[in-house]
Design goal:
The chain is mostly helical. The protein has one domain. Helices cover 57% and strands 0% of the residues. Helix 2 packs across helix 3. The termini are far apart. The relative contact order is 0.06. The C terminus is likely disordered.
Length: 134
Amino acid sequence: MQQKTTPPPPLPKELLQGGRWPEGPVQDQGAVARARRRRRLAANARERRRMLGLNIAFDRLRSVIPNLESDKKLSKSETLQMAQIYITTLSDLLREGKRDPDAACAEEDAGAEGAPGLEVTGVMNFWGRTSGSK
């Protein structure tokens, strides 16, 4: 004689999370909310550390690029634009020195006042702000 088997009872809704089996024991809603808040606070702290590191890097970059208006702090966008111009200008100067090494030696022998285009006022005027800046 065969025994009748009854189907298993349906799973309680609390055990299912989004149609999936839970990974651990069933937790109350308060514990879930506390865990979510802890994760959010940890993510916020990581983001604050990331932004602090980024701001420190921008401050270091600002300290090495020439700036006419040294009393006004450059924005991040202005800092990147100035750095790009500065790097391009230095690269151009290096390329010019490689093309004409005799002229570069003559400029060094003449001193700073005898080096055309490298006077401090000329360099400082070059770094003035563009018309699009504040």
